[in-house]
Amino acid sequence: MSEVRLEATVSGRVQGVSFRYYTQRTALSLGVVGWVRNEFNGDVRLVAEGEREKLEELLAFVHEGPSYARVSGVEFEWGEATGEFGRFQIIH
């Protein structure tokens, strides 16, 4: 199965609620690679690559987030995988 790229920006109460940690944990369990980071405006941004089915599961997770998060919106787009990532990590 071919790999694709997901780029997403999550808005709402998504910083200070372990959103990046749980996103990384979910991504690792799904076997996808890429990164997640906090943005200066309070959003969380992520880029991930892997099988589309797995990325759709990750996308479903970020629409909800961990229990203390309150997601108000998710903007995302699909693209072609670049193969540039070796693992999924939190970046700063």
> Helices and strands: which structural class?
alpha+beta
Overall structural domain count: 1
* SSE arrangement, N to C: EHEEHEE
**How would a crystallographer describe the biggest sheet?**
5 strands, mixed
The total of helices stands at 2
Model regions low in confidence, pLDDT < 50 over at least 5 residues: none
Mean pLDDT: 97
| Total number of strands | 5
CATH topology: Alpha-Beta Plaits
What is the terminal-to-terminal distance? 31 Å
Q: What is the CATH top level name?
A: Alpha Beta
Described by the principal axes of the CA atoms, the overall outline is globular
Q: Please state roughly what percent of the residues sit in beta strands, choosing from under 5%, 5-15%, 15-25%, 25-35%, 35-45% or over 45%.
A: 35-45%
Structure, explained:
- There is one protein chain.
- 27% of the residues lie in helices and 42% in strands.
- The chain has one domain: Alpha-Beta Plaits (2-Layer Sandwich).
- The mean pLDDT is 97.
- It is an alpha+beta fold and 92 residues long.
- The longest helix is centred in the middle third of the chain and has 13 residues, at 52-64.
